[in-house]
Write a structure and sequence with these properties.
PBS_lyase_HEAT; ARM-type_fold; 158 residues; mainly alpha; HEAT repeat protein; 10 helices; Leucine-rich Repeat Variant; ARM-like; single chain
Length: 158
């Protein structure tokens, strides 16, 4: 953890990578700090580590994810979006809807599936209508994730 302030971005990235598997408060605190790193790759990996690998859900964790939701790096934004959705933060729905466009990445689809909010269904269905198979070409994975997100957001009947 002492190396989290090292001059080398490769070393700091290695710290984020290493701490992804540790849930101790000191490890989470270090990852939170790395989520604000100057290097895009370090920030991306730290955001992924906290958002995807850790179940920690504290005000500090959510604040860091919210801070990164509009990061200049699209991977950092995507990982923050996924992390908030994984924590069931429905305040992310407007952000997610605004990003469910034909050029969206798998981040948004994963977040929609994770959140499984019926409020996302109209945007997902519109995206499905806009992006037939030819529009996305060979991206079968993307198409499958869209289908999974649509299925997850369908209203549940008792």
């Amino acid at each position: 953890m002492r190396l989290s302030t090292h001059a080398s971005d490769t070393v700091r990235w290695g710290v984020a990578f290493t701490l992804a598997g540790y849930a101790q408060p000191a490890a989470i605190s270090t990852v939170l700090r790395l989520m604000a790193d100057q290097d895009d790759d370090v920030r991306d990996y730290a955001t992924w580590a906290l958002g995807e690998m850790h179940e920690a859900d504290t005000p500090e964790v959510r604040a860091a994810l919210w801070r990164n939701i509009d990061d200049r790096n699209e991977h950092v934004c995507g990982e923050a979006l996924k992390g908030l959705a994984a924590r069931g933060d429905e305040d992310v729905i407007p952000h997610l809807i605004s990003r469910l466009k034909p050029d969206c990445r798998v981040f948004e689809l994963h977040a929609a599936e994770s959140l499984a909010a019926p409020a996302l269904l109209p945007a997902l269905l519109a995206l499905d209508a806009q992006c037939g198979e030819p529009a996305r070409g060979e991206s079968h994975y993307w198409r499958n994730r869209l289908g999974d997100a649509i299925a997850a957001c369908q209203p549940k009947h008792a």
